[in-house]
Amino acid sequence: MHLFDYSLRLPITDPTWIFFLVLTIILFAPILLDRLRIPHIIGMILAGVAIGKFGFNILERDSSFELFGKVGLYYIMFLAGLEMDMLDFKKNRNKAVVFGVITFIIPVLLGVWSGTALLGYGVLTSVLLASMFASHTLVSYPIISRYGLSRLKSVNITIGGTAVTVTLALLTLTMVTGMFKNEINQYFWILQLTKMALTCFVIIFFFPRIGRWFFRRYEDGVMQFVFILAMVFLGGGILELVGLEGILGAFLVGLVFNRLVPHVSPLMNHVEFVGNALFIPYFLIGVGMLIDVKTLFSGGEALKVALIITFLPLCGKWLASFITQKMFKMNFHERRIIFGLSSAKVAASLAVVLIGHEIVMPNGERLLNADVLNGTVLMILVSSLISSFVTERASRKIAMKNEAQERLGETKTEDNILIPVSNPDTIGNLVNLALVIKNPKRKDGLIALNVMNDHNESSVMQAQGKKYLEKSAMIAAAADVTMHTVSRYDLNIASGIIHTIKEYNVSDVVIGLHRKINLVDSFFGVTAENLLKNTHRQIMIVKCLMPVNTLRRIVVAVPPKAEFEAGFTRWVNHVCRMGNQLGCKVHFFAHPQTLDRLDVLINKTFKELRYEFSELADWDDLLLLTGQVNFDHLLVIVSARKGSISYHPSFEALPSQLSKYFNNNSLMILYPDQYGDPEETITFSAPHGSSESLTYDKMGQWFNNWFKKN
């Protein structure tokens, strides 16, 4: 017996070598195709063609490809819902419905005409063929995700329209198959629509509540990821039970979990990483293995059918995207995005053709014959290639344009957020809060600090501090953000924080709320009080009673004259950014003059934010907020240091009020930056109505002089 068996039998059936070959394709296809400027998706599909039974027959499309392929398809739809900008989607939902109807009707008309006039098929066969023309799969969506364009208006319209057109196509399939099975009666549509409405209600109403409960109870990243994946397949399974395609269930689950999985969170990074690294490439390779290129050269009726069902749907989708662009006044690149996303045909088209091929008519012929079945694989290849090329080119153009605009709008200063860590129970909430307020374009800007007393140099304290810093860095790294860790000795914690602020040019400090040890102890604690006295930077003192991503609303109490503080714009940007990332409505309570300034600032920078204003004329009315803040809300109190413009004597009673009336709420007490960055120039509305452009240092002097005169 030989020590090694060198015989090679094709197709390969050993699981080890199957998985190795698939991983090799996933690894090297992007590397090779990047040099040729060809989208990665095409490489995966072509690799599937080469290794499949219609190529070199290296691998067989076994149950593993079916399983991972279905997971990948569900993943694409789930990510589309998860990454969608819900505010923009709600704003453009009517446009999405219009596009969905247009991109269904035009291909259907072309399909019925071509089936009856060009191919000589019967009416029912032509209708079923038309439903295949109308449906499409978001094969090129990973390109959109890679370029960070998932919140583009045209993308949201296309994704919403996809749900509409796929639903209509599958209902058409259900109707045609029901007629052949004699299931169509007077109650058919009532029953079908009732089942659809009931299953959608279950997913929309119950799933977010289950998700919020789970995330509050279990903070382990692995458990949360497995839970998310289980809910995706539960949603898909429920839709399949009522006779619809499971991809719609996965899309719905993505929509309802949109607010629970912030785009800059570690969980979102896990979801995208696993999908893009394994499940989605597996699906694309599996699609390629279905394609028989030899049908191109078979000639005769098969080639005619293949050409018709390949190019007529593309014409219909282009016409639908053109009409949508003109109706909603979008630009050329947005039209290409819509066409690119909506032109690929894989999932629903395969479902239609396979089901239609299985139905045998009374005359003994199949509803969709072998020519249509063979033509479908050509349609999948060509439509996927065109979809990928068009989406890649349009995405690159839009991304380059957006990057150029961002560079023009960049400020001289950047946020550097410091997070002192000393309590293992609060590290996760503090880091996650910092992640949602930081600039999402930056992959750094976070600093974790552990301060040890000069008089306490025990190895136990050193090891503990190192462990806290490592935990902070791991949480940030899971969100694809690099965190700088600092461990230092100093006289006390406050002194260590102050020195670190100066050394690392820190702009904001996020610190946990002090826990009172005895009656003599103050509400904020010695450390926070010393920080407020000895640094002018923005300080955020935080108490989170639940994970940040499960908060449902942010209530902000703003004192009079807060708009005159140097740090006003900074804290408004941070609060609004947090509202956007968490999908929360932000409710501002402030003096009418302050609300006017807030309105101008928010409309200029955060037009998509959900917010509302209420008048809080007197800071003594703060207790009125007790009826506005629920257990799953975050109460943000914008305070001020003594001697600052917006300081009010009633701030002295703030600790006792918070302890008495808001003890069971998540809190953030925010002290704005007093002076800002000395060289940064801003334009602001002066009290007498004129507009001034000054540095922060000059602005502080201007206000001091103005208040002395008035």
Features:
24 helices, two-stranded antiparallel ribbon, elongated, alpha/beta, 710 residues, ten-stranded mixed beta sheet
Description:
This protein has 710 residues and is of the alpha/beta class. It is elongated and about 90 Å long. The strands form 2 sheets. Strands 3-2-1-4-5-10-9-6-7-8 form a 10-stranded mixed sheet, with helices on both faces. Strands 11-12 form a two-stranded antiparallel sheet. The chain is built from 24 helices and 12 strands. The chain has helices at 15-36, 40-51, 63-82, 86-91, 93-118, 123-134, 141-146, 153-180, 188-217, 221-241, 246-256, 266-289, 300-327, 332-343, 347-358, 370-408, 427-437, 459-478, 493-503, 525-534, 568-582, 592-605, 654-661, 696-709, and strands spanning 417-420, 446-453, 483-490, 508-512, 538-543, 553-557, 585-590, 611-615, 633-638, 666-671, 681-685, 691-695.
Short description:
Helices cover 58% and strands 10% of the residues.
